[in-house]
Amino acid sequence: MDLIELEKEVEELRRLLQKKENELCLLKQNLNIVSPVLDQNGSHSDTGVTGTETKGTLPKWAIERYSRQILVPEIGVKGQEKLMRGRVLIVGAGGLGCPAGVYLAGAGVGELGLVDYDAVDITNIHRQFLHGEKMQNISKADSAARSLRSINSRIKITAHNIQLSASNALEIASRYDVILDCSDNVPTRYLLNDVSVLTKIPLISGSALKMEGQLTIYGYREVDDKKKEPYTGPCYRCLFPSPPPPEAVGSCSANGVSGPVPGTIGCLQALEAIKLLVGRNRESLLVQRMLIFDGDDMTFRTVKLRSRNDRCAACSDNATLTELIDYEALCSMPANDKELDLHILPPEHRIGATELVQQMNKPGHLLVDVRSENEYQMCCIEGAVNYPIDKLEKMFEELMENISGASRVTFICRRGNDSQVAAKLAMEKIEKNREKIQDVEGGLHAWAKYIDRDFPVY
Amino acid sequence: MPETLKLQINFSGGAELLFDKIKKHNIELPSVRKYLPDSKAEKWTIRELLVWIKGNLLKERPELFLQGDSVRPGILVLINDADWELFGELEYELQQNDNIMFISTLHGG
Ligand SMILES: [Zn+2]
């Protein structure tokens, strides 16, 4: 009982602390302590102390705080001023957004916006390190914003707790100078590209899965008043005019990801954002080039990309895109990395977890787990045999032999999609007794919810 | 002029899953006239290479790698570390020891 009381008390205090922190943050912003406004000439209005005038343009605190990066010739005083005037929108407060946010907040970028529709889940924390254990079920944008404020209270941080879409993206993005694509799905990537093209805001696009990462800058525009037509880099659609087939798209929740992989890419997104804000030229930036990182054999490859496609639907002179569209429809995918519930088998071939328990007690029942070997080793129902879905072709004969000797066969997987695919294959192959084949609706997630609370949910 | 053409083929970003999970393949192509006697091709281009890959390396679900006579959307082809668009895409004539890379774009974060 003491434990529960204490946990409650800690939770209360945490809430109170958050409230006070928010108050303080607002107060500071109103007092103009946060993000000193540098005017066009670079002079500043800071803490309100009058009578002292430093020779430089940066206030004492900023010189001290950012000295290590100001010393870098590529950044310098001018660069630091630009960073402090800079506004960066980070879309996705996950594996890429966390490291990117940390370095941009640390560098003193004047304003950071964080977009995320999702809440913190325990499976996020191994890589999304701005969220602690206690932040579970709290908005990721809020959680990340709070952590970043504790790193730098001098900058303005805005949490956007929304699903970015065609109806809100332009309005939000137009308040920023650079967009970081730290998202986790295809529709959002096309959406952000079109936002970048329409608003002329450069897009630093990072992605990661398993042991690999990719990084490039889309929609870069050179600022050159002398040139009639300053250089513009390719956009996402110049490279990928049409979206990939949904079944070819992997996700961190289905395929996994090693934390330091998005960590690496996110850090480099922050570096490119810093370089972009301080005005490094395009030869120095990852423009018309893509970085390909393989964490397994530890190789970084920088490859040369095509130039802007003069037939691109989004960014060319002959572009047909004039406004944002429905990106979930364009990609035939939802704008998140959650898995869908498929309906492949007829309902009479699907059972619930409770029914599975009853059938397992009957002789001759065969339980076939079609998850990967790795997942099967992580956790499985006692007595289940493992036929991974992607090895099914090779092991099909053996499985069919097993099936012919069983009185009833139940397929199971993590969530109840692959189990239907496998059951359907077996039903097509088997000549008689098709009715003995079935799958578990909701898979092992349902098993954990209704039968065995100790079974891991991942 | 050697009879065979040696190439290194790389798959990454998940494309390797369709190729026995092997990312690097050192291959040797026979003369294109021998391999594709019915085609008018005189030299190996990426177009014929895709036919060869389909017949010799691709283990499963060709629709996740190919679409028509090209690669499916979302796969970037690199010829010696540069976008194939810079070299005429399917028409690029393969050279001895070329490195051809097929990268599936990642979307996770
Ligand atoms: Zn374009």
From TrEMBL, chain A:
Record-listed E.C. numbers: 2.7.7.-, 2.8.1.-
Coiled-coil stretches noted in the UniProt entry, renumbered to this chain: 3-30
Swiss-Prot/TrEMBL keywords: ATP-binding, Coiled coil, Cytoplasm, Metal-binding, Molybdenum cofactor biosynthesis, Multifunctional enzyme, Nucleotide-binding, Transferase, tRNA processing, Zinc
Enzyme class, spelled out: transferase
Occurrences of domain Rhodanese (ranges): 361-456
Record carries keyword Metal-binding: yes
PANTHER family (UniProt xref): ADENYLYLTRANSFERASE AND SULFURTRANSFERASE MOCS3, UBIQUITIN-ACTIVATING ENZYME E1
Family label: In the N-terminal section; belongs to the HesA/MoeB/ThiF family. UBA4 subfamily.
Summary of the function given for this chain in its UniProt record: Plays a central role in 2-thiolation of mcm(5)S(2)U at tRNA wobble positions of cytosolic tRNA(Lys), tRNA(Glu) and tRNA(Gln). Acts by mediating the C-terminal thiocarboxylation of the sulfur carrier URM1. Its N-terminus first activates URM1 as acyl-adenylate (-COAMP), then the persulfide sulfur on the catalytic cysteine is transferred to URM1 to form thiocarboxylation (-COSH) of its C-terminus. The reaction probably involves hydrogen sulfide that is generated from the persulfide intermediate and that acts as nucleophile towards URM1. Subsequently, a transient disulfide bond is formed.
Name recorded for this polypeptide: Adenylyltransferase and sulfurtransferase MOCS3 homolog
Source organism per UniProt: Leptidea sinapis
From TrEMBL, chain B:
Record-linked CDD domains: Ubl_Urm1
SUPFAM superfamilies referenced in this protein's UniProt entry, alphabetically: MoaD/ThiS
First-listed, main subcellular location of the protein, grouped into a coarse class: cytoplasm
Modified residues annotated as 1-thioglycine in this record: G109
Pathway involvement of the protein, from the record: tRNA modification; 5-methoxycarbonylmethyl-2-thiouridine-tRNA biosynthesis
A GO CC term assigned to this protein in UniProt: cytosol
Keyword Ribonucleoprotein: no
InterPro entries registered for this protein in UniProt: Beta-grasp_dom_sf (IPR012675), Mopterin_synth/thiamin_S_b (IPR016155), Urm1 (IPR015221)
Any one of the GO BP annotations: tRNA wobble uridine modification
Post-translational modification: C-terminal thiocarboxylation occurs in 2 steps, it is first acyl-adenylated (-COAMP) via the hesA/moeB/thiF part of the MOCS3/UBA4 homolog, then thiocarboxylated (-COSH) via the rhodanese domain of the MOCS3/UBA4 homolog.
Gene3D superfamilies: 3.10.20.30
Keywords: Cytoplasm, Isopeptide bond, tRNA processing, Ubl conjugation pathway
Cross-link Glycyl lysine isopeptide (Gly-Lys) (interchain with K-? in acceptor proteins) placement: G109
Annotated compartments: Cytoplasm
Role description: Acts as a sulfur carrier required for 2-thiolation of mcm(5)S(2)U at tRNA wobble positions of cytosolic tRNA(Lys), tRNA(Glu) and tRNA(Gln). Serves as sulfur donor in tRNA 2-thiolation reaction by being thiocarboxylated (-COSH) at its C-terminus by the MOCS3/UBA4 homolog. The sulfur is then transferred to tRNA to form 2-thiolation of mcm(5)S(2)U. Also acts as a ubiquitin-like protein (UBL) that is covalently conjugated via an isopeptide bond to lysine residues of target proteins.
Annotated family: Belongs to the URM1 family.
Protein name: Ubiquitin-related modifier 1 homolog
Origin species: Leptidea sinapis
Lineage: Eukaryota, Metazoa, Ecdysozoa, Arthropoda, Hexapoda
